[in-house]
Known about the structure:
- Keywords: Cell membrane, Manganese, Membrane, Metal-binding, Transmembrane, Transmembrane helix.
- The protein is α/β, with parallel strands linked by helices and 571 residues long.
- It has 21 helices and 18 strands.
- Helix 2 (16-41) runs antiparallel to helix 4 (76-84), helix 7 packs across helix 8 and helix 16 runs parallel beside helix 17.
- Helices cover 41% and strands 11% of the residues.
- It starts with a helix and ends in a 7-residue tail after the last helix.
- The protein folds into three domains: 2-149, no CATH class; 186-497, 3-Layer(aba) Sandwich (Alkaline Phosphatase, subunit A); 507-545, no CATH class.
- It has an eight-stranded mixed beta sheet, with helices on both faces. A four-stranded antiparallel beta sheet has the order 15-16-17-18, covered by helices on one side. It has a two-stranded antiparallel ribbon with strand order 2-3.
- The longest helix is centred in the N-terminal third of the chain and has 26 residues, at 16-41.
- Strand 16 and strand 17 (517-520) form a beta hairpin.
Amino acid sequence: MLIVFSLIEWFASKRKFTYYLIANLAMTSILFAVIMYYKYYGVIVDYSALQQVNQVTAVKNSVFSLMDPQYLLIYIDVVLMIGLLFFRRKAKEVKKAFTRKENKRVMIAVLSVSLALCLFNVLPNSASMNEIVKAEQMGILNYEAYRILANKEIQYVDSSEITQEKIQNVKNVQPPAEPKLFGSAEGKNLIILQMESMQNFLVGLSIEGQEITPNLNKLVKENSYFSHFYQQVGQGNTSDAEFVVNTSLYIPPRGAATQVYAGKELPSLPKLVKSVGYDTATFHTNVVEFWNRAELYKAIGFDRYYDAEFFGTEDAIFFGASDEMLYKKSIEELDRMNASGKPFYTQIISMTAHHPYTIPQEKRLIDLPDRFDGTLVGDYIESQNYADHALGEFIDDLKARGIWDNSLIVLYGDHLGLPIYSLDNGEKDLMAEIYGREYTYTDMINIPLVVVNPGDEAPATYDQLGGQVDILPTIANLLGLPLDNQMHFGQDLFNQSYNILPQRYYLPSGSFLSSEELFMSGSGFNDGKHYPLAGNGNNEQQSTEEEFDRALELLNLSDSFVQSLPNWKKK
Length: 571
């Protein structure tokens, strides 16, 4: 702050008060943005988030729900400064006071000392992996300046060195010679259901005798369910989940995948199934321009998309038509595709259970106890109960139309719904009541994965570690499609017992999941924190520094691979 004020005193001879006001407003707004962003994402916002500015109006309900009125007190000094200008006598006195010229030598001294103190805080902490620790040690404004001025170039790996064998060696896994269930769904339709904000604790949850997700629970009991499955999204949230699932690549180090990677000729699930004659389409009730999806869908090769223009505004909630309308109109298209005799792949993105979860009263189908009233947890549970209701109707429709029995159906959550940072103490108590223990980071990013393959083996619950990057190779195995010529960073979950999942954005850089725990970095590995995976009860450190290094290497390999791909726009 003193650096900025010194520069104003040094260079401004007129309108100094205005410059002070602008500087105050700018720095205050940065601090306000940090507060707001942290409350949802749990990270320190920086200049790269400016790419999201055009998304703010679309999620204004979420933004307002995060803003406690007392946050606005951060602007009180700005308001007082502006208020002075409306009192003529006082305004003249203030402006006169600000016309005084300060001694330039004094200003140079203040500037130099301030700059030295900033560098003293910044430089020793610049190597820290954890952005939150880094910001805490540097100071918020110093950290924001550091992010702009010290934007390091990524050291990419030469494309000739990136092979599937190398990826497997870094992951420390090898695919079996004769994979289990290979081709068990060969020739079937593929339907992927991406469920908005669905966390794994919803599975089997009942509150005072009321089953919250009865349709999901039935799917879990009758099919293949992966209980230790985790999100791998970043700034793009839902759109990032679409990217990761359809490419088996990791999200970029900064920005949403749809904005950073959509111009690339991406290897993808749509292209893979199209090579064996599938028709492909994706369904989303929001406008396709949101998160640059139109470009993403071209890059990954969907034949067509259905967005708000197709679904209309009837029964609209938040961004577009309700889940009931999504499924009602989508099933008609699926019926037509099924009647063509050609197998199809469709990805359907549900949206009604979106933050802040304030669905209309007529969509609230359960009566929660009073302690849940007016809480984010209560609203979340009610919205997910409605989403489950709509899902149940869709499942019944698929069965009635004869599509269910000839389809491989994959259902998963796109990302967390209840960030720890957004919950007040009362809401944390409600989550502790649900879990029977403290709500943790591993719980927060734990999402369900259910694979429905009618006629397949007996229902089972799988406890091996998995993430969204693993969905593509898992599906490829079931459909009997070799991935020999398609680079991928995930692995078939039916044929592996070990996994390592690098994390970005919602957790500090350097964080990853191993088969036993979540590791969250500090300045590096040695001062990081270890969290046992949900439900395994093991509090001993399990992950190693060697795994930490391998997780970082995997991210760099993915970044380097995508960077080496040609741009589809120039073809």
